[in-house]
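User: Let's play a game. I give you a shape written as tokens, and you guess the letters that built it. Ready? Here's round one.
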């Protein structure tokens, strides 16, 4: 079905119901997924999403109809069974947890596929739409489903709010939580139960195959934007909710396609946008920061070189002299020289360059930091004198005025570095 009028989604009762249902599922999965992500249980969440399929099939076979209670009960039982089996295999055998997860998830999914095939050949007329649990079909939602989603999301998000402080400690440092007297075992089980419940509810919209993406991707995306847990949960919930809503819209506007793939595709767009443009952690930001750091190091290395040559009695210095001391790319060196002239740290005289008063001060500062750090490495870290230059070359660019003051105090305002060179003040 092609939808040409976007007002359909805001006027049609069925469309509104579907949008609310998928939005609520996205909010819920985004919130609980944060703890799976932080506790490094992302693969467990993936295993749960695959393991619920046989539970759905057995629930249908028991009820002989698509009874929501039977389907959900079967999904919850098998989801929890998968968690228990993973824990049992990883603790009672020599297999690692990731191997246990792979075995359990593929085994349960295979059983579910076999049961689904058996149901399709049974001739039961009620089986129509059951295969939509593989990739999701939000259009099959009814009023009861939406009400159930809302109640479940209130329970899940409400428990997260009420238990926020102990859950935060358990997620980041379970050992410290035990010392504090927090019931780590209970909270771990509670998180598993909420995850299983969320998966069991969400598979109708997203499907078994793609449910893990809706659990993990919003949390991973939100992590790029904040270092605070409360904000991360809020962002993950909003990302999951918007992905659910827009995924339904895109799947309906384009053609009558399964909603799950479109929800995950929408979620991928959020994620890839974040990977590119997130401040400080996005690819473009990191590239810009790295470029600035490289420029800062080249600038300071050049000023240091000018000052060292000035110490040797060279006031006017040519590019050839600079390259003899520090072989670098000529075009990059010329670019740095132009920058230093623009900053009024250098003067160009014919084919040579001379430090200005400001340039002398800046060059002296870099040389001082380099020699102080070399002295610190030999005096406090017991480095040999012939092993300190490279480390000092790197660290000198990161020493702040506060660290410099601490170094001076620690070393008692020294006059010479380990190579008997004067430390300029």
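Assistant: Ready! My guess for every position:
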């Amino acid at each position: 079905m092609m939808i040409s009028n976007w007002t359909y989604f805001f006027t049609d009762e069925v469309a509104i119901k579907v949008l609310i249902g998928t939005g609520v599922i996205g909010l819920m999965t985004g919130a609980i997924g944060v703890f799976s992500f932080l506790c490094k249980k992302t693969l467990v969440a993936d295993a749960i999403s695959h393991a619920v399929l046989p539970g759905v099939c057995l629930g249908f076979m028991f009820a002989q109809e698509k009874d929501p209670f039977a389907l959900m009960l079967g999904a919850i039982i098998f989801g929890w069974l998968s968690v228990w089996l993973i824990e049992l295999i990883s603790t009672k055998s020599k297999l690692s947890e990731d191997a246990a997860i792979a075995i359990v998830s593929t085994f349960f999914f295979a059983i579910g596929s076999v049961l689904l095939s058996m149901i399709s050949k049974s001739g039961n007329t009620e089986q129509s739409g059951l295969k939509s649990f593989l990739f999701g079909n939000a259009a099959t939602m009814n009023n009861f489903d939406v009400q159930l989603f809302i109640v479940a999301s209130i329970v899940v998000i409400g428990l997260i709010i009420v238990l926020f402080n102990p859950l935060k400690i358990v997620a980041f440092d379970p050992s410290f939580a035990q010392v504090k007297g927090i019931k780590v075992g209970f909270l771990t089980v509670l998180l598993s139960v909420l995850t299983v419940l969320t998966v069991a509810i969400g598979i109708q919209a997203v499907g078994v195959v793609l449910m893990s993406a809706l659990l993990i991707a919003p949390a991973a995306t939100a992590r790029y934007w904040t270092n605070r847990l409360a904000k991360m949960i809020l962002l993950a919930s909003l990302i999951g909710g918007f992905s659910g809503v827009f995924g339904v819209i895109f799947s309906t506007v384009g053609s009558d396609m399964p909603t799950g793939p479109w929800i995950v595709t929408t979620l991928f767009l959020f994620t890839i946008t974040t990977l590119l443009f997130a401040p400080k952690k996005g690819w473009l930001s990191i590239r810009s920061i790295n470029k600035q750091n490289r420029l800062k190091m080249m600038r300071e290395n050049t000023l240091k070189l000018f000052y060292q040559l000035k110490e040797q009695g060279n006031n006017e210095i040519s590019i050839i002299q600079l390259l003899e001391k520090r072989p670098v790319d000529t075009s990059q060196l010329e670019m740095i020289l132009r920058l230093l002239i623009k900053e009024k740290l250098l003067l160009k005289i014919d084919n040579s360059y001379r430090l200005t008063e400001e340039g002398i001060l800046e060059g002296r500062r870099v040389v001082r930091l380099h020699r102080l750090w070399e002295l610190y490495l030999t005096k406090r870290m017991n480095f040999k004198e012939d092993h300190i230059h490279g480390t000092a070359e790197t660290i000198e660019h990161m020493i702040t005025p506060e660290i410099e003051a601490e170094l001076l105090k620690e070393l008692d305002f020294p006059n010479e570095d380990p190579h008997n060179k004067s430390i300029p003040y």
